[in-house]
């Protein structure tokens, strides 16, 4: 069969890589893809947001399955449009994807159905927001309501920092319309865990858990990014806690969607904080996480196409999903300056050396003739696996050290919390 993957990051590269392992797949297209994906799939020059262009391509090319990576097309209704045209597509419809698109919607949904999350209040006026912050005190968390590519959240340790974040979002509009409304949230402390699940509207099948590293510098210092690395499993979080999160969060979410008359099909991502009083939701995403997918998919033993078809057909309950016991670690190589401004078009060396049990997923590269150039904030995700986290980590960093480009930045402590 022919499969089309929509998106252009490391997550999409990992999805393409996994789909190519399926005996059912003869050809993978990626729209628009990137320099690295181009080596594995046929990249087509259609933006992930050009829904009519994608519908047209899928029909013309007789694509059998489309897989959506990023949230923006989901929230623009790509799944609804493909379904109208009778095209098979993996992902939630627009209405269901709102769980990611609006923090206020997600928070109110959780409140209504008793799903554990931080206390919160939403605001459309900065003066009221600042009043609330002064009343609650620091630490406190300020979030832009809409999509901000993972960068719309400030965990403020002082009142001053919190007030500055409100002004930046609401008055200086650094996140554009996404910050017109903000959510102010109670600060939660604990270990973070990313728990993703396949859902078909009836059944929930959790994936193996992972942990992301959001801040740009070692020891979780500096501003939040889209994610600087990930690992799976997360041994310091006991299995009972993961089971508790499934029971108190994923299953109730599935039930709540049903009660709302919304069929949620695709991947649901729960970003959780494991607090002293149990797991609580930090955010939901309506898609695979990035970079988590880069460590979770290498551990998947079952054919990803079979799982996706089962989700689309509403037959997930009949589908076995098997995971390997191996550990995987992904280290992101970013452009110096990210998540602020950075240079593009910088030549990358050392990509072509083969290494065992390692794969390099490209997040932001272009291929210019025979030369790889940087083309984004996150550039590469070096993923390695092994019998233990330690082994996978060692292997990943060994490979990282062979790659170079001007002003490269990566964290040197990915997976350290597990050791
Ligand atoms: P989000 O984009 O909502 O995932 O938030 C980005 C990061 O900010 C999370 O991964 C957490 O590290 C941190 N964060 C978000 N909400 C909270 C909270 N209520 N308490 C503590 N940290 C938080
Ligand atoms: N790694 C967090 C996300 O994908 O949103």
Q: Topology of this structure?
A:
Elements: E1 2-7, H1 10-19, E2 27-32, E3 42-43, H2 51-60, E4 65-68, H3 71-75, H4 78-84, E5 89-90, H5 94-101, H6 103-112, E6 120-123, H7 126-136, E7 140-144, E8 153-156, H8 159-170, E9 182-186, E10 191-200, E11 204-206, E12 211-212, E13 215-217, E14 221-224, E15 229-232, H9 239-259, E16 265-275, E17 278-285, H10 292-296, H11 304-313, E18 327-335, E19 347-348, E20 358-362, E21 365-368, E22 371-374, E23 378-386, H12 389-400, E24 408-409
Parallel strand pairs: 1-2, 1-4, 2-3, 4-5
Antiparallel strand pairs: 6-9, 7-8, 7-9, 10-11, 10-16, 12-15, 13-14, 15-18, 16-17, 18-23, 18-24, 19-22, 20-23, 21-22
Helix pairs in contact: 5-6, 7-8
The structure holds adenosine monophosphate (AMP) and glycine.
Adenosine monophosphate (AMP) binds at residues 118, 141, 143, 150, 153, 155, 185-188, 192, 214, 224, 271, 282-283.
How would you describe what is shown here?
- This protein has 419 residues and is α+β, with helices and mostly antiparallel strands.
- Helix content is 29%, strand content 28%.
- It is built from 12 helices and 24 strands.
- It has helices at 10-19, 51-60, 71-75, 78-84, 94-101, 103-112, 126-136, 159-170, 239-259, 292-296, 304-313, 389-400, and strands spanning 2-7, 27-32, 42-43, 65-68, 89-90, 120-123, 140-144, 153-156, 182-186, 191-200, 204-206, 211-212, 215-217, 221-224, 229-232, 265-275, 278-285, 327-335, 347-348, 358-362, 365-368, 371-374, 378-386, 408-409.
- The strands form 6 sheets. Strands 12, 15, 18, 20, 23 and 24 form a 6-stranded antiparallel sheet that branches. Strands 3-2-1-4-5 form a 5-stranded parallel sheet, with helices on both faces. It has a 4-stranded antiparallel sheet with strand order 6-9-7-8, sandwiched between helices.
- Strand 7 and strand 8 form a beta hairpin.
- Helix 5 crosses helix 6 and helix 7 packs antiparallel against helix 8.
- The longest helix has 21 residues, at 239-259.
- The N and C termini lie far apart (42 Å).
- The model has no long low-confidence stretch (mean pLDDT 95).
- Adenosine monophosphate is lined by residues 118, 141, 143, 150, 153, 155, 185-188, 192, 214, 224, 271, 282-283.
């Amino acid at each position: 069969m022919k499969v089309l993957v929509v998106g252009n990051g490391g997550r999409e590269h990992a999805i393409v890589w996994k789909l190519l392992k399926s005996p059912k797949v003869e050809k993978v297209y990626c729209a628009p893809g990137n320099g690295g994906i181009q080596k594995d799939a046929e990249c087509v020059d259609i933006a992930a947001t050009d829904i009519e262009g994608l519908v047209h391509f899928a029909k013309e090319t007789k694509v059998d399955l489309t897989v959506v990576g990023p949230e923006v097309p989901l929230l623009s209704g790509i799944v609804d449009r493909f379904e109208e045209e009778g095209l098979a597509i993996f992902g939630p419809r627009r209405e269901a994807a709102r769980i990611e698109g609006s923090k206020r919607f997600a928070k109110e949904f959780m409140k209504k159905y008793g799903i554990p999350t931080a206390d919160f209040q939403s605001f459309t006026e900065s003066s009221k927001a600042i009043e609330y912050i002064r009343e609650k005190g620091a630490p406190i968390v300020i979030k832009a309501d809409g999509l901000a590519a993972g960068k719309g959240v400030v965990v403020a340790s002082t009142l001053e920092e919190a007030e500055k974040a409100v002004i930046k979002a609401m008055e200086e509009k650094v996140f554009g319309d996404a910050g017109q409304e903000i959510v102010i949230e109670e600060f939660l402390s604990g270990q973070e865990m990313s728990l993703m699940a396949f859902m078909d509207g009836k059944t929930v099948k959790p994936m193996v858990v992972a942990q992301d590293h959001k801040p740009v510098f070692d020891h979780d210092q500096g501003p939040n990014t889209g994610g600087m690395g990930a690992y799976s499993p997360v041994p310091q979080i006991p299995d009972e806690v993961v089971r508790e999160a499934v029971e108190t969060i994923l299953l109730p979410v599935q039930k709540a969607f049903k009660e709302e008359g919304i069929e949620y099909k695709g991947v649901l991502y729960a970003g959780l904080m494991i607090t002293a009083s149990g797991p609580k939701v930090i955010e939901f995403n309506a898609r695979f996480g990035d970079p988590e997918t880069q460590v979770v998919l290498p551990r998947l033993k079952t054919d990803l196409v079979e799982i996706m078809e089962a989700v689309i057909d509403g037959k997930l309950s009949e589908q076995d999903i098997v995971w390997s016991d191996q550990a995987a670690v992904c280290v992101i190589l970013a452009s110096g300056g990210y998540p602020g401004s950075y240079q593009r078009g910088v030549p990358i060396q050392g990509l072509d050396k083969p290494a065992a049990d390692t794969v390099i997923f490209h997040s932001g590269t272009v291929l210019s003739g025979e030369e790889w150039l940087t083309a984004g904030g996150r550039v590469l995700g070096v993923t390695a696996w092994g019998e233990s986290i330690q082994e996978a980590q060692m292997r990943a960093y060994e490979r990282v050290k062979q790659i170079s480009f001007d002003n490269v930045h990566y964290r040197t402590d990915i997976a350290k919390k597990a050791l």
